[in-house]
Design goal:
The complex is a heterodimer. Chain A is α+β, with helices and mostly antiparallel strands. In chain A, about 30% of the residues lie in helices and about 15% in strands. Classes of the chains: A alpha+beta, B alpha+beta. Chain B: One of its GO terms (biological process) is protein localization involved in auxin polar transport.
Amino acid sequence: MNSNTPSTSAGGTGSADSTAPRRNSKRPKYSRFTQQELPACKPILTPKWVISAFLLVSVIFIPIGVVSLFASRNVVEIIDRYETDCIPLDSRNDKVGFIQSPQDKTCNRTLTVPKRMKQPIYVYYQLDNFYQNHRRYVKSRSDQQLRNPGKEDDTSSCDPEDTTADGMRIVPCGLIAWSLFNDTYDFTRNNQPVTLNKRDISWKSDRDHKFGKKVYPKNFQNNTLVGGARLDPSKSLSEQENLIVWMRTAALPTFRKLYGKIEVDLQAGDVINVELQNNYNTYSFNGKKKLVLSTTSWLGGKNDFLGIAYLVVGGLCFFLAMVFTIIYLVKPRQLGDPSYLSWNRNPGGR
Amino acid sequence: MGKDRRKKLHLSKIYSFRRGKGGFKDDNAQIGGPGFSRVVYCNEPGGFEATTKNYASNYVRTTKYTAASFLPKALFEQFRRVANFYFLVTGSLSFTSLAPYSAVSAVIPLIIFIGAAMVKEGIEDWRRKQQDIEMNNRKVKKHRGGGVFDHTEWRNIRVGDIVKVEKNEFFPADLILLSSSYDDAICYVETMNLDGETNLKLKQALEDTSYIHDDENLSDFRATIKCEDPNSNLYAFVGSMEFEEQQHPLSPQQLLLRDSQLRNTDYIYGAVIFTGHDTKVIQNSTDPPSKRSKIEKKMDKIIYFLFGVLFMMAFVGSIYFGIVTKDDLEGGHKRWYLKPDSAKIFFDPKRAPMAAIYHFLTALLLYSYLIPISLYVSIEIVKVLQSIFINQDIHMYYEETDKPAHARTSNLNEELGQVDTILSDKTGTLTCNSMEFIKFSVAGTAYGYGVTEVEKAMAKRNGSPLIVNGKDYGVEDRAHGAKKSSIKGFNFDDDRIMDGNWVNEPHSDVIQNFFRLLAVCHTAIPDLDEETGKVTYEAESPDEAAFVIAAKELGFEFFNRTQSSVSVNELDPVSCKRVERSYKLLNVLEFNSSRKRMSVIVRDEEGKLLLLCKGADSVMFERLAINGRKYEEETREHVNEYANAGLRTLILAYRELSEEEYQAFNEKFVEAKNSVSADRETMIDEVAKKVEKDLILLGATAVEDKLQEGVPECIDKLAQAGIKIWVLTGDKMETAINIGYACSLLRQGMKQIIINLESPKITELEKVGDKDAVTKASRESVLQQLMNGKFQVAASSSEAFALIIDGKSLAYALEENIKKLFLELAIGCASLICCRSSPIQKALVTRLVKEGTKKTTLAIGDGANDVGMLQEADIGIGISGVEGMQAVMSSDISIAQFRFLERLLLVHGHWCYRRISSMICYFFYKNVTFGFTVFLYEAYSSFSGQPAYNDWFLSLYNVFFTSLPVIALGVLDQDVSARYCLKFPLLYQEGVQNVLFSWRRIIGWMFNGLCSAIIIFFLCTKALDPQAFNKDGKVAGYQILGATMYTCVIWVVNCQMALALSYFTLIQHIVIWGGIALWYLFLLAYGAMSPSISTTAYKVFVESLAPSPFFYIVTIFAVISALTPYFVYNAIQLRFFPMYHGMIQWIRHDGRCDDPEYCNMVRQRSIRPTTVGFTARSLARTNPLEMENIN
């Protein structure tokens, strides 16, 4: 009856099938998901894709590499390693003894500015072979105590620098604070002192939320064994930015920490005198100490690694693109060669 | 009417079974002793004695857990796995100060994953619980007292209750039959659920209780039953009933077992003796052997390997840690800032070895990220989803029986993709097990135009047009096919016979006798539909039903059976009218497997005594009379022809008996029947043998057990896929060989190696009867034939072989010292057919293959005789066909038709295998990547145990950011679509050869992970340190390095997944990119929490990472460069060394899939020309001539 209208007849039979109340109650319901026929894209690494992927990577990477390298090269950096030079010649046999003795440890260094340095110029100290990431060291602090004036007694995690010998709670407690870096630097240019801005050198979140505005140092460095710098008990912890910087532990044994900012431009050829107090003991563990003055670019400090790495990978990708092009042209794929089948290569069985 | 008629039947007279009396006295003597202590007071549910006996209730529980035991038991199950146990240990250790991270962060993922696994267990158990509830709440009529029955739930049945079970109901417990609707208190029982046998079994009550026919009779019925204690033996029962102060012995004849079904009987009364878990069927049910897939076993090895790596890492780290810690006090590296002199044991330089040991534990905790904690639960989730796909596959749904495929266990999904050998039953598996009467031969003339599948296959083989009996079936086939569906069991077509035309045939009298025999000589019971007047039959076997139906269709309608007569509506050849004839049924000489024949003795209306007999050719021809062999030669010829056409044949013969002869026989027969000695059966056989002789041959019948739809195509596909198919059948060798051809198991160009024991020498020895000599000669013969076969196979490298072995030879071939040789030969052959094999042999062969080749075996079968095979094989597939549920219940996956195996293996199996193996590889990849960044960072923190990442970054890695993509991979990935899986069956070899989960590939992935870890770690550290990180001159500390590195890891592992996928659906896009997005969201949310919670992650993204271009540049760089090695490898491999799926992908991509030349090129990729699948593949070629040219 419906045969002269094919579309309805087709629809009719279809619906008749599904509506027929045969015993097919257990018939699985059709859906593209259960029948595993979901629409999908089936990517395959065709030569076109491979070559264009490599080319794309190289096209993106090489400019980024160039820009990064350029940024890094624009940064002017002065590094002065001083841990040996600042020991008087007669004490060099016993550096540890010298550093632990109470004598004057003033040391004068002269730095020459190689290129014009625009302000702000960041002053860092760099330590080497210093394991700020040692688990014992990292754990030895009390975040509660640092933040909350009411939690002064929360020093349980600070072992072994939790209390003084007579049982008084130390604020800030723990090994990190105790070993606070205590070398100091004073800069003069042409006998004019260069002011060093030591504010705003820590992360804002640390100042605002991790170090309390009403927490003041107490009993700090009162033990017989003094670790590092002392703190001004009248300044709250959130104002003690050198402590905040120090307590944000470094990831690796070689690290820099921000010491301050010089907010004047330095001209090429300027000679800067640094009067430093060489107090910090890195001699016990053969650590180096460096004073670093550096400008920054949009990419941060001077590190050619990333730029070069980008260029290398970009270049490599370009090279691979070329190689693949040549291979694809010279040696087209042979579909008919059975030796490609992996299980043909080891004729096991029989 | 019908009811009354049946009531009068005293079938006990026809059948030769033993009545309950005269059970063995020594058995009964045991009653009351140990093991036989049960006392049942029938019909006294509230009685005092009944309440003192505390027998189990009829509530049956099949669940693994109860509400109380769930928690401890399920937990125990979970922690039995080594990896989970390890995580339990690390979880507990994380509460000590050894832990490098906070305890909560370590325990929560463990809780999540163990919880998920337990929820899954719980859901599964809940389903079982639902089934239990359904079962326990079935209704049955129970005697309430005073002759009143009312419905009650099964679970309320108590020992001693009297229940009334009606037709087609199941027995709710083990009952003692008291009486039935029949006068002689018999009933028919179908025990399909117990042993898978579909034939009806007769049970009979004691004579003394058979008077009960009304509910009222029971009001003051009292009896005491003493019997054995619950046990699992289905076929034995010892007990006695004290009724009216008399002891009556009880036997299995009175026992009705739970879960069997009452058939052909209107109702029975029974007394409950075993309930619930005491019933024999439940005592008998054992948990199916739990099977684990090869991949999972290998995965365990990988986990052990990773444990090894982990311990190595921890060991190296501890040694180093010990040395540097010791240095802090004495050496040149005194790290005073650590205050080593006041350190606790963990860092104490004075006790450095101890500290190192403690550190070792810490390191074990820290590197635990190398072991994917979510692996097990992810795999379980994935497998359940895969099973749902199998269950839901519309292409594996069988309309006719309304049965979809059903994966009863999800453990073996991926194993389906690795099947090397299929061991198949024949009847009911390859064939439908519905017999169709198709041909017969009477008086030396063959009738029937029907063409069997086998004949079609043979014709195809010989390349000759299909001409049978002068009729060309090439064209008519279709019309024929349409016709046959009209009457089930009857597929006969011959106009010389049909519509009563047979009366004009030359030997119409013989034909008449032939039909009459078909209509009379059987044990079927007619069921007359009063409204339509149509007769249906209930028969013990499908063959028998086919005969009665055939007789009916040919004009001899058997319509009524009374206790002593059989009534047939016959077509009278003289008057050409239908007349009703009744035959007095005197004796039934039953069929059994040793007699291989059955006879009835009847008296026809003229008073003549007739013995009608039908049986197998091997026993019948020798029993013919000298004058009865008139058509012997032709009939033998026809029988052979039929056998060659794959048909089951029976010989029909009769004889007339004289009165005296019958009297003499009957006396002896009754005597034999009533004897109580153990050799009663033999006595009956002897008596029967004496009368079943001097028969006059009438002819032969041929019944076709039709091949299931699509079987040849399916077998061909499977063979093309390189799967070896072995058929284990009980059939004759000729039949088996021909079926083999029909289902394309044996193919043109295959060389057959036939092993049997039919050499003249052995036959001679057998005649002499020297058993030892026969055994010895047989063994030697088998050995010799096996050697020859092996030599043949070894000598020829270009031919495919088929091995055919019969059951007798198989028995020798399976002997300890020969079986290796047999196996070697069998492996060298593409197909193997074992004929006349017993169930135990089937299981033994399966075990031989499984253990001998160490490859995956799949057994498929439908009957109870296949259960051993199904349980022995790596995978058991049950066909949910007509032969009951036994095979299905012991299978791992059930399908409705053999042909669905093709899709199950080639599509689902392949996919599941691929998915699971890729998934596991990827799992290890992602955890190695992550774990090694942690390890490398350790090296830079003097192995002090400081994790590189925030605690929660660590613990959520496996939970959130990388878990969903890998599950999506396991559920959805497809290398090629289902169409191509089927089009290029050789793809399946990837699973058989296990190329996707070889150690090379696994180590390769781990190596890839290692590379990624190294690239990420060194790029991040070198790029970030020590200079300023942003424009403000701030440097990157511990938190920034950790977060950046973690970001890189998340990107890399997710992009790696995207790169490895070959099937990108929307879901994958969502989970992969969603995983990455989730990480940023998490970082935002977590960083916004108060610093006491977020610790080192506080505002790290908002304040430090996000504003700094450096972060993005490092991320992009790390991601691209970590992925490049894999990308290059993959590009080269796919282009120049493609795996098989790669080739198919290329073809699809090039749009060449319909180009026959291309397809052939790929399809013909043979492993070795001699092996499996080669001939199938050569047949699959479009042009067979081409093949010959090449060779």
